[in-house]
DNA sequence: TATAATCTTTAAAAACTTATTAAAGCCGAC
DNA sequence: GTCGGCTTTAATAAGTTTTTAAAGATTATA
């Protein structure tokens, strides 16, 4: 999998925001959201999303103001305006404010997704964004399926990589066996529960100094596992 | 002084092409144009415009074909599709073909100009000079389809050249098999996946000292390949 | 402490992915 | 048309990963 892109959804219509958020998450985007125009700027400045989906008519603060403020504050990523009023003069104003694109409501969700996927493709060349995760004395490089331990590179298989990624996303939390299997094999798989153990064993051999007394990948009997860091 | 941007207008409607050309010239763009779908590709490849305004329904060659061909041949600048039929499914297809944006006819010229001015603003930073790429002890000259290794010239076939170019653009990143095939053969090609292996093998024979233990062109099992430099 | 439930480990089979070879197809230059 | 180089495919080999089964270990608790 490629880098995960972050999208901010700024939309006050609960229904639409829900739809957008869920669909985009399902498409593999990292989504942050707010209905509040005033809160939007903080959210965006703090999270630096790759794309902002911005409703143009918000209660409180106007989309145009938000857009302008963001640009003034040096925000350079993509801002896509969502608007119902598609008068030409508005579009020109929006472009002048630094909007990268607009979509007119109501829009087809499939088209929006195709558009975002497309924009992101052009983005991904210029991105250096590493999502290297560090834990203990190790570095996990999910893109290359590898682990650096004491300066030594250890290759991970696809499943090991996927499992470790999930653990690292949910560090210090007890992870339910079923949830984990769900993440690794998806909805209706009929893989044996023992198979998971197998992968855990192999992962432990790769990451633990003493696989018999795991320091990181601990089992929580009756529930699942817990990835302990610090 | 700012750079002058070059726009190619590919449109068979004499009237509209005239309007576009004159207005864009008046706005300070460098405009090249043709009404002929078949001639469009040559025009674009030779002039490398920053933006292509492409009518989607041309006599002779379809806009979709032109777009696909351009992308496959490594054209990376902006392609804006102009279309009267704005069915959702078409938009999705267009995005998949690598269109950067679309405008629906009839469009307001002021809006188009505002849009182009805006796009150009985001463009102005990036531009490369020579396209000779060096890696390891080699030089890749994509224009002449050749490789200099230890002072010796090695000829590359068109596909080898295209593949290597893509690898060198995405050095040290894991490249998905499908993405690579997409780049090499375009959107809906039905080339066998083994065919790619074949080309990889031959490319390795040309660039690697020891093709069996590749130093540069490494495979990432389950995903694709990675071109490793340094 | 015995028993049941759960987890770990091992080894081997099954499934899958990539590499290689050889042959056929395609296309342009002559 | 024929030749030669490039591309594609098919078949097969080689190498890895994933899964399963079965046995062993551990833990909880009756």
UniProtKB/TrEMBL annotation, chains A, B:
It comes from the Bacteria. Pfam families: Response_reg (PF00072), Trans_reg_C (PF00486). Residues 130-229 form the OmpR/PhoB-type domain. Keywords: DNA-binding, Phosphoprotein, Transcription, Transcription regulation, Two-component regulatory system. Residues 130-229 bind DNA. The keyword Transcription regulation applies. One of its GO terms (molecular function) is phosphorelay response regulator activity. InterPro entries: CheY-like_superfamily, OmpR/PhoB-type_DNA-bd, Sig_transdc_resp-reg_receiver, WalR-like, WH-like_DNA-bd_sf. Coiled coil: none annotated. GO terms for biological process: regulation of DNA-templated transcription. SMART domains: REC (SM00448), Trans_reg_C (SM00862). Gene3D superfamilies: 3.40.50.2300, Winged helix-like DNA-binding domain superfamily/Winged helix DNA-binding domain. One of its GO terms (cellular component) is protein-DNA complex. The modification 4-aspartylphosphate is found at residue 55. Residues 6-120 form the Response regulatory domain. PANTHER family: REGULATOR OF RPOS (PTHR48111), TWO-COMPONENT RESPONSE REGULATOR ORR33 (PTHR48111:SF1). This protein is a positive regulator for the phosphate regulon. Transcription of this operon is positively regulated by PhoB and PhoR when phosphate is limited. This is Phosphate regulon transcriptional regulatory protein PhoB. It comes from Hufsiella arboris. The lineage of its organism: Bacteria, Pseudomonadati, Bacteroidota, Sphingobacteriia, Sphingobacteriales.
């Amino acid at each position: 999998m490629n880098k995960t892109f972050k999208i901010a959804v700024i939309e006050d219509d609960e229904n639409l925001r829900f739809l957008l958020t869920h669909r985009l998450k399902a498409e593999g985007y990292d989504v942050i959201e707010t209905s509040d125009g005033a809160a939007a700027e903080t959210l965006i400045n703090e999270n630096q999303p790759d794309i902002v989906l911005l409703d143009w008519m918000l209660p409180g603060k106007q989309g145009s103001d938000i857009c302008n403020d963001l640009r003034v504050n040096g925000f350079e990523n993509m801002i896509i305006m969502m608007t119902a009023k598609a008068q030409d003069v508005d579009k020109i104003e929006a472009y002048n404010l630094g909007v990268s694109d607009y979509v007119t409501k109501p829009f087809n969700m499939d088209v929006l997704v195709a558009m975002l996927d497309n924009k992101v493709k052009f983005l991904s060349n210029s991105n250096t964004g590493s999502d290297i995760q560090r834990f203990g004395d190790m570095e996990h490089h999910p893109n290359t399926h590898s682990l650096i331990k004491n300066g030594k590179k250890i290759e991970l298989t696809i499943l090991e990589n996927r499992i470790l990624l999930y653990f690292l996303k949910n560090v210090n939390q007890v992870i339910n066996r079923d949830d984990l299997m769900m993440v690794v094999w998806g909805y209706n798989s009929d893989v044996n529960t023992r198979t998971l153990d197998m992968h855990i064993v192999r992962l432990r051999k790769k990451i633990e100094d003493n696989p018999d007394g795991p320091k990181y990948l601990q089992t929580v009997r009756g529930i699942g596992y817990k990835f302990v860091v610090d």
